[in-house]
Write a structure and sequence with these properties.
Number of helices: 4
Shape: elongated
Strand content: 5-15%
Structural class: mainly alpha
Largest sheet: 2 strands, antiparallel
Radius of gyration: 17 Å
Helix content: 40-55%
């Protein structure tokens, strides 16, 4: 007889409650490490990365703080995607999901 999935009522809320204490330390680690993952040629773009951590009621957000972040993260027609945000998140040991 095959196993049948039965959703557990309140499972999402329970997992969120269990993981909530780790959100701020993870966000702080990402914000602290992010500038070191920005490629340096002259250092001008790296200096624009000023990550901040914003705590909201049910979540924690890391704001990159650079007006150029999307060029490095996604690349341009003439430049490759360096993905400093994705690399930082992976280096901290988390999974990156762009939304």
């Amino acid at each position: 007889m095959p196993t049948r999935f039965v959703p557990y009522p309140g499972a999402v809320e329970k997992v969120q409650k269990l993981g909530a204490p780790a959100l701020r330390p993870a966000a702080d680690a990402i914000a602290g490490a992010l500038p070191s993952f920005v490629p340096v040629q002259s250092g001008n773009v790296q200096r624009t990365y000023r990550p901040t951590v914003v705590q909201q009621e049910t979540s924690v957000h890391v704001h990159v703080g650079s007006p150029f972040w999307h060029w490095l993260e996604y690349g341009t027609r003439f430049n490759p995607a360096y993905r400093p945000v994705q690399s930082t998140v992976a280096a901290v040991g988390l999974r990156y999901e762009a939304h």
